[in-house]
Amino acid sequence: MMKLRELTLKETHDLLKAGEIGVVELTREYLDAIHENNPSINCYVTLCENEALNQAEEAQKRLSSGEENSALCGIPMGIKDNMCTYGVRTTCASKMLENFIPPYSSTAVDRLLKKGAVMLGKLNMDEFAMGSSTENTIFGPTRNPWNTEYVAGGSSGGSAAAVAANLAGFTLGSDTGGSIRQPAAFCGVVGLKPTYGLVSRYGLVAFASSLDQIGPLTKDVTDCALVMDEVVAHDPMDSTSVAWENGSFTEDLEKGVKGLSLGLPAEFFDSALDDGVRKAILKTIKLLEEQGASAQETALPGIKHAVPAYYLISSSEASANLARYDGIRYGHRSKAAKNIDEVYRSSRGEGFGREVKRRILLGTYALSSGYHDELYNKALKVRRIIANEFARAFEQFDVIIGPAYPTTAFKLGEKLEDPLKMYLSDIYTAGVNLAGLPGLVVPCGLDDKNMPIGIQLIGKPFSEKLLLRIGYAIEKAVGSFKALKNEGRA
Amino acid sequence: MATDVETIKKIAQLSALSINESELEGFAKDLDMIIGYMEQLSKLDTGDVKPMEHVLPLHNVLREDVPTHVNRREELMNNAPETANECFMVPSVVDA
User: Fold this and answer.
1) Do B61 and A344 touch (CB under 8 A)?
2) Do the Cβ atoms of A91 and A330 come closer than 8 Å?
3) What pLDDT, in 10s, does the model give residues A219-273?
4) Which of A356, A294, A310 is nearest to A331 (CA)?
5) Is A460 exposed, middle or buried (0-12, 13-18, 19+ CB in 10 A)?
């Protein structure tokens, strides 16, 4: 028998609305499954069992009375642990915030809760969202549900794994340089990094403020559009928040790809790209061409400098953002500190993990006198060059299409000792954040190890509906997440 | 511009970050490799391109000055590692 938690958000909503299933029963099924499967996947770091059941009862009342019609009402969700949740521990997977209980909720989470979504718990991540494998975490690594010897990707690894293992109806992640899209690709789920400014960052623990963006991870493209419909709104609490005035994210899904032009940047298909990934991406593009889209090679030469520019800018911003952790008002305080200077230094030294320290050091170095112009300012200039190249490409193409990551998921521990190697693989994702563009990842096949491959669609600012429309066509042509999963397990 | 142990000590000082003696060598090696790679940018001719701090045109956003999230004193204080008499506690900062 089909389990309720294997249904998509949309399918679940239809059954809830028809009264064929109840929210409490649904929530219990998810909670039971988490108890059973989380020890092997390790996607949840905090479970909100009682709160979730209370929210479920409340949501059921609102659904039954017809007071709330949102597709998200009564849907169990998981939230990356860098989004503040009122009264629920928010750790950023860091010893620094291990016991931090936010006195307010982030706008994104608050909007979903108000629509009746049920929060099952908080999800594992790389500490302060710095990493690509969800191995830099005080809770131990998240494992890929497709094969637990492999990483789930990162930094939103818990968010991707929870969806892939059917341990949440949908999740929220955050993406600073690929942190939604890469784990989505690794776990075979849909992940969207929206245009910068579309989802409020209020209450998102800041990593690199000019790049951070919250977005959904879902079982299919329709679900992604449904979450976007609720999470996107102008927020006066975020001065970079922009208003969306283009209607529902679901309305263009079935319009097809006929007449659309796809640009394939040569830099996305160079020798760094794994052959299995390349084959699946090109095959998917062929399928879109068969449906009337046109594909043509193009060039984004600046992309080869995206990784250094991204790491210099994001680490510089992080070194400033993380200066707030001083061990005084909240966060870890060193017990050994004897004077105020030691409180700062030792609390930070003990509270931050190795990768976070590495980034703070890199950022401080790039901003320090003598290197500011040569490194930080230079990176900002390269950022504009990359943004301009994308803008020119969009004069010719509707979307840019390519891989999200050079390989499929790698094994736990495989890249942990070589930080530069880990950074270099962000080549296809980081430029999108530098330019503030939307990027959608949709599963498009499996490699010879039966691990999922994701295809990435990049559009001009606020083109989310177009990306979702193409993503929907890919899903129809390749088979949805469920079909992919069945294939993988066959 | 190689980053050695002395450089790491200096940046750690600027970052208010204590680093164990045993970690200094490792960080020096990592940063030397990473910054060495980043330096490819300095060879790039960026001409008169203006630095891009932000993708959106940033302007001040004003709203009515209405207090929200009020009466959360206890919740806020509960997050502090050390408090006394409803105040944050720190080691003495003035010599007696």
Assistant:
1) no
2) no
3) 999 999 999 999 999 999 999 999 999 999 999 999 999 999 999 999 999 999 9
4) A356
5) buried
> Looking at this predicted complex, what is its ipTM?
0.95
Residue extents of the structural domains in chain B: 5-43
CA distances from A468 to A78, A83, A274, A314, A476 (A): 22, 25, 26, 28, 12
Query: Residue A436: which of B42, B56, B58 has the nearest Cβ?
Result: B56
A463 is catalytic: no
CB–CB contact A380 B78 (8 Å): no
Q: pLDDT tens, B9-68?
A: 999 999 999 999 999 999 999 999 999 999 899 889 998 999 999 998 878 888 889 988
Name the strand (E) or helix (H) holding A282.
helix A275-290
Q: Is A84 helix (H, G, I), strand (E, B) or coil?
A: coil
**CA–CA distance, A369 with A13 (Å, rounded to integer):** 56
In angstroms, rounded to a whole number, what is the distance separating the alpha carbons of residues A27 and A51?
11
Which residues of chain A make contact with B27, given a CB cutoff of 8 A? 357-358, 361
Question: Cα separation of B76 and A375, whole Å?
Answer: 38
Both structure tokens of A386: 């990359």
Decide if B76 and A375 are in contact by the 8 Å CB cutoff. Answer: no
CA dist A353 and A94 (Å) reads 7
Residue in A56, A86, A438 with CA at minimum distance from that of residue B79? A86
Instruction: Tell me the domains of chain A and their CATH numbers.
Output: 4-263+396-489 (3.90.1300.10)
Evaluate whether A174 touches A129 at the Cβ level (below 8 Å): yes
Best probe of the B interface among A339, A373, A378, by most B CBs < 10 A, is A378
Query: Which of A240, A333, A349 has its CB closest to that of B19?
Result: A349
